[in-house]
Amino acid sequence: MKTIPSQVLEDLKNLAGKNGFRAASPGDVSDARKRYTGNSQHVLRPADTATGAKLIARCSDAGLATIPLGGGTGLVAGHLGLGDRASILFSTERMNRIRQISTQDRNIVAEAGAVLATVQAAAAEQNMLFPLSLAAEGSCTIGGNLATNAGGVQVLRYGNTRDLVLGIEAIMPNGDIMHGLSPLRKNNTGYDIKNLLIGSEGTLGLITAASLKLYPAAQQNATALCPISSPEKALQLLSLLQSELGEFITAFELISGQGLSFLAEHFPQLKQAITPPPPWSVLIEMSGGAKIPLQGLTEEVLGDALVQELILDAIICQSAQQRQQLWDLREHIPLGNAQVGAIVSCDISVPLSALSTFIDRATAKIQALDPALRINCFGHVGDGNLHFNVFPAIGSKRESYRNMGATLRQDIYDLVDQLGGVFSAEHGVGRDKINELQRYGDATRLAVMGCIKKSLDPNNVFNPGAIFPD
Ligand code: FAD
Fold it and tell me: What is the position in ligand 1's atom list of the atom closest to the CA of 380?
């Protein structure tokens, strides 16, 4: 592998100043699913945007591959240098301040390296809500969330990260700083560059801070876990809840019995709500202001759902502790999967009308290949977003299925494509799904993306090898 010329390294050290440069640690170059190891050896870690801009200008002059790094929780190897080209990581770990919070403008300005949970807590201190919520929230950063347009469990009500951003500050590949930390909700003055950078996975520039929308904090929640006979029933239930309770629905998560069984095996300390785990269940949460009789309304509508045979039962939480237990189960599902080790993990999205067909057909395909394979299908079903993960037979390890992985993945993605869906709902393309983007992406769209990349980053320094082949 090529190394960074010593003069470039020396210049970067000098520009970065005290504490602004360090050697890469194993954690910086690792992947949450333990499939890839990056080869970058150095990390730039400036404390402010102005220093960051000087560093990026120097990287750009030197044609040095610069890889933005947030919390490193990304699941598609977007933050890892994998090719032969020498690269340097640009970490936002020291750019982590909350610059401003306003209850009147209902916004918070956070630097890119602020951990999502810290931003949520800062909002909560003002009795406000920053609604982005995902299992990695204790480690992932606002910069990473914007760069991947992260989703999570409250998208149904509040949208993806993109819907929560009012403005951004960013360093463009030539080192220029774009200022745009506005609290404005309406701005029709030309191209929306912030939305170009959101979801660009660090290929078009470095996001240094964001102005984010806040909402009034929920005064109360009503949470329930309902076993159901099939995913189709989940969609019918969602339809009923939406017509009766509309905007109050905050989360609607499909959980499979397989996922709960993995938890029973690997996280026995977690209290299971129903034993043995039902084949399918949905975790539902409503939230709203103090004057809304949310608990009563939820009980009433779930009572109707029981009569209409949309659900088999309903565990309606009676305490904050019970609610936490249910959410702990949901949030541990990815961790349970990691313990077992998936052969393939697909984060797909299909139209709601095709969701049930997808689950049936994908399951049949997998079972035709090997009926002993285990499937954990779960996710933000209200958004048509499923995590469809295939695991080895009991007693086997994923290493034994190495030859099967690519076939499984393509079978699943072909089906998703036929049903009008996409192969990446939340995690992005990174380096892991480049072939899929080339295979399934619209040709004209790919060409436009290529033009944008070339014109903003002519030296191809920003995260080369992510989204596009290097
Ligand atoms: P990193 O992993 O460091 O980087 C991700 C990408 O963003 C890379 O391409 C990187 O180069 C780029 N990047 C990082 N910071 C910047 C910046 N400041 N400017 C420009 N580019 C930047 N994702 C979901 O969407 N929904 C979920 O529900 C979800 N659940 C998860 C659960 C677990 C247990 C784990 C491990 C991950 C989960 N993820 C989920 C994936 C991951 O948490 C998100 O993609 C998250 O947004 C990544 O943030 P990060 O700070 O860790 O970014």
Answer: 28
Measured from the CA of 152, which atom of ligand 1 is nearest? 28
Residues 6+ apart with CB under 8 A from 318: none
User: 200 CA to middle of ligand 1, Å?
Assistant: 12
DSSP-derived 3-state class of residue 392: coil
Please tell me the total number of residues recorded for the chain in this structure: 470
Instruction: Tell me the pLDDT tens digit for each residue of 191-213.
Output: 999 999 999 999 999 999 999 99
Ligand 1: atom nearest CA of 113 is 18
Q: Is 322 exposed, middle or buried (0-12, 13-18, 19+ CB in 10 A)?
A: middle
- Contact between 128 and 217 under an 8 Å Cβ cutoff? The reply is yes
Model pLDDT, residue 219: 94
Q: Pick from 111, 101, 99: which is nearest to 145 by CA?
A: 111
Burial classification of residue 402, based on how many CB atoms lie within 10 Å of its CB (0-12 exposed, 13-18 middle, 19 or more buried) = exposed
Residue nearest (by alpha carbon) to ligand 1 atom 45:
74
- Residue 119 in contact with residue 98, Cβ under 8 Å? yes
Spatial distance between the Cα atoms of 459 and 453, rounded to a whole number of angstroms: 10
**DSSP-derived secondary structure letter, 119:** H
Q: So what's the pLDDT on residue 33?
A: 82
Write the DSSP assignment of 12-25 as a string of letters: HHHHH-TTSEEEPP
Q: Tokens at residue 195, please? A: 């939305």
- How many of the other CB atoms lie within 10 Å of CB of 34? 9
- Joined together, the tokens standing for residue 354 give 């095709």
Q: What local confidence, expressed as pLDDT, does residue 83 receive?
A: 84
What residue type is assigned to position 273 of the chain?
Answer: A
pLDDT in tens, 388-435: 999 999 999 988 998 899 999 999 999 999 999 999 999 999 999 999
Compute φ and ψ for 107, nearest 5 degrees. Answer: -145, 160
Residue 78 predicted with pLDDT over 80: yes
Cα separations in angstroms, 444 against 155, 221, 231, 440, 452? 29, 45, 35, 12, 12
Q: Please report the beta strands in 45-178, taking only residues with DSSP state E, as ranges in sequence order.
A: 65-69, 87-91, 98-102, 107-111, 128-129, 165-171, 177-178
pLDDT at 1 over 80: no
Report the chain's C-alpha Rg in angstroms.
Answer: 23
Q: Which of 408, 327, 396 is nearest to 366 (CA)?
A: 408
